[in-house]
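Example with several molecule types.
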Amino acid sequence: MKVKNIDLSWFRGAGNSISLDTSMKNVVVYGANGAGKSSFVDALEYIIKGGRVKHLIHKHIGSKQEKGIVNTHRPDGCDSTATITFDEGLRVYVHIRCDGQLIFGSEPEQLINLVQSWQLESLLLRQNEVANFIVDTPGGKYSVLLPLLGLDDLERAADNTTKLSKYISETSELSSTQYKISELRSKVDRCFTDTSDGSLSNVLKTISKYYDIKIELTESIFEISKKLHQSILAKMDSITPEISRYSTFNRIFEEDLPSKLSAAINKQNEIKDKIDKLLDTRIEILEKSQTYNKILEEGAVDIYCPACGRAIKREDFERHVEGELTALKHLCSMRDQAIEARRALKDSISRVIGYANDKYFMNWLDLKPQQELKESLLSLTKLNEDRWEDTFTSETQIILSQVIPLINKVIQAGIKKIPPSSSRLLEDISALEAINVIPEIRNLEKHEKIATRIINALDSTTSAIRQTIRAKTEEVISQISQDIRYLWSILHPNEPIEDVELYLPQEEDKSIDVGLKFYGVDQPSPRFTLSEGHRNSLGLCIFLALARLEKNKHLPIFLDDIVSSFDREHRGNVTELLKNEFGDRQILLFTHDREWFTELSMLLPPKVWMKLVLKPWREPSIGMQWSTSEFTFDDARDYIESNCELAGNCVRQIMDTQTAIAAEKLMIKMPYARGDKNDHRTCVEFLEYIISTAKKSLKIKKPNNEYVSYTEPLDYWNDTRSRLIVRADRGSHTGSLVKDEVEDLISVCERSINAFKCDKCGDFIWIADQKSKELLQCSCGRIRWKYD
Amino acid sequence: MTFQVKYMKDDKSYNITSILESCMAQLKENNKEAYELIIKRSKARFFENHQSPGSLKSFAKDILEASYKAVK
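Resulting structure tokens for the full complex:
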């Protein structure tokens, strides 16, 4: 597929209309900086990328970069257009309407889709991209190369599967689900080591039995567990009074009313016997006491004891009285004990009445079965309102003896019904709650498993795609690495950099780097050892190797200012490389390098190469303009109006280059000049030796096929040399050139350069390949240069 | 030679759907719904083309919904 025309109108640097007509040949376009040559390349990129040129990207440039694409001085009512016409009448175009509407189209209709599917990077190489690629990171190189290797759809697929996997994880809330499962699972694990249905069923049976809750074994364990849980929670309210009541029972029981009653009665009875006797003796004493005066008066021997009333010998009386005192004191002690026992009983009864005032106990007492107990307690309450302990009458004793055993009986029965302990209760509730979360765990695990399986499948797909990318990339880069080495050897023969290759760093996805050997030492990156010029050269080799891949072979190659950092020798090697290795490809070469353009235009055969020169750009409304000359003297013409001296200098610079290349191609022998002087010879010097050699070497073919001396060009060259000596030197040294003189000088120089060409075939005299090493000639053989 | 035959032939030696099918054999057994959704999209060149986050999130949601529905 070859480009026939690129037509621009008010597009970038173009004015109303400019057409790059290739005539289906290769093209080399020269233009000074700003002449507008990149506008053709921008048109290609804009169409392929559907309205985007990478180097124009800016936040204020507009959604379709219209502020950069449209000529700032486009007249109202005019569209900006770019049309690329290929062979067989195929064409693609873009119209940017005045109203901002953007229209991409083609003939045939589907061609635009094909063109927009091209990898721009395999068609177009710009200078800055060469440099950027080499210094880019391995990841950056990967991004650039992958589309060129045709593997970008695989990369997108890997990217999509990776992201889809991530979104599955996010949407399914996988991480929080896993956390929740872990939390719930630990709750279950705290209660059970075995969560099989059989084991859980046994737990439920135990719990239901303990709490006396009936369960239906036909139900699922989780339904049973839920019901048990609800029942036990409902029981919590009833269990609280039960615990409280049990506590009251215990406290009443611990008061041990029966023992205290028994003690009180016994003590009371003991005192009663003693007191009865005492009362009897008191009368006797009072009766006997009437005799004391007589005894004291008569001095009787026996004394009647006032305590016991018996007659005691006078000498025994004192001891007897002490005995009686001891007995009385003992009796008093017994009395005190009896009182204490009664008080203890009363206090105990008071506490029991207090315990019984507990609200849960009272509620329970209100129930019918507890009626007798309630009445008993009421009796006690009523009794205790009096000071019965002082008298402790038999009536009181009877009441107490009836009530207390009855209370004791109920209490003893009560304390046998031990309510569940709160720790047990909590344990059982925890167990049931643990069972209740098992269905949730199982459900979460089910969802987690679904998401995990999808994620695993996607991840293994991503991994497989990446392996495919790696395998395919290795296959292609191995192939192009051979080509890179080959192209490098043409650009840099006999240089110590070898084994240049692309490689995939181990254990790293999405990265490609360039390796090489520098003086026999492996280098993992060209950054380490290569100069800027070598890096750019390497970038060019990589691009050209990619462009030569089978899938790209039918496409043209656009090279925009690719040799800026190359020295003259390497630029020459690029020329040879393009000429010899890309003869079957259409190349559109754009350069601002006048010297290289001169070299190209004097070396590349006009049959397959067009040489076009853009005039220096003047203003937006005029836009880009083609020069009518294939030489670069328009650069000099551009200075005439403003600075004739500068124009004269420019003419001489152009002639320096043109004549140097001519002298080189004609193998003119010149005396050796020391040091830099070899590289600073002037056009005057070259012309002098060319003229001198041409006198015997330049021949023209006569109709009888005989070659005779060809002197006409010598006249031109002599004339040019003379004028260059006078005018160009004046231009550089005296500053007194005028407009007419410069125009005359340019005209003469153009004629002189044209004099190296054949009038018939249009080729330079050195173009044709000759078997003989002794002569050069044009393509048709009309003129030739025979040298020694 | 027609325009399409000359310039638009597909020389790909790999197929994303085939890679997906081979990597998702297990998923096919335990989650046929998700598998079929993914393969269906793949056949429509969903994965080869650039997809926005919104489109991928929506697809993820569809896959999960179909999967949950199937296991209910």
